[in-house]
């Protein structure tokens, strides 16, 4: 765009990307290297995971409260950038930044649309895999200790886990859409863990449908499978949510730190609750076993052996 002050970065076959400034005067300019209108410091760039990131500090004229931000990518011939495509995602890749409030307003729907999908993806997955799933596990582990909660704990557990799966599938779908709309931007670890989580979650759904009766001889193996896959899914989900926060921070710097800190607080609270319930559960179980042993002894006799009390024979 004529009049733009460009920060250009070009990946190299080895080493750091080539970074320079360019003042665009007309459409025939092939981003030739040159000075821009603003003093610039700390100008560097990195290329990781197929994502090119530019870092720079611009000194703007005093009193500047907003600016128009544009971004583009395109082919390179040798070391010379070529004209970028002219699709909607290119022509609408701009926004107005309010330097006072930090708010932005897109010049087109593309940037805002991607941002909304990114936010939706994060919220859906944090709510499902990161909150409902561990909450359902806590309900199953600790509520069933209380006899009055049977079978309510089971239905609450199934409701939490089923809801987590449904919402999680929606979050997974938005992630696939984001990946298809972000050519050249890949988060391999985040994507791989997301596939594993979806696969494990689907296995748990089938496990519910194939659950044997309590007295069935293979029930113990089903329990081992259910616990192993369930707790593995929860652990991987929490790890992947933080991987998602890392990806967001690469894109929008510190805007999502508040979300990350809030999620850390939620997970820490669930962890503390689980520890308290774990200790309380063991106390209840041990007391119940002690009471049962006393009841058995009381029925069978004073010594608890074959129903007969001990006697002292006099000769």
Short recap of the structure:
This protein has helices at 88-91, 109-142, 152-180, 188-209, 219-252, 257-300, and strands at residues 5-10, 18-23, 40-48, 51-58, 66-70, 76-77, 80-81, 94-98, 104-106.
Query: Helical residue percent?
Result: 40-55%
Q: Give the overall form.
A: elongated
If you compute it from the alpha carbons, what radius of gyration comes out, rounded to the nearest whole angstrom? 30 Å
Q: How many strands in all?
A: 9
- Which structural class best describes the helix and strand composition? alpha+beta
Q: Let me know the largest β-sheet.
A: 3 strands, antiparallel
Low-pLDDT ranges: 249-253, 302-315
Number of domains: 2
CATH class of the largest domain: Mainly Alpha
Strand order of the biggest β-sheet: 5-8-9
Cofactor: heme b
Function: May act as a catecholamine-responsive trans-membrane electron transporter.
Domain Cytochrome b561: 80-286
Organism: Lupinus luteus (European yellow lupine)
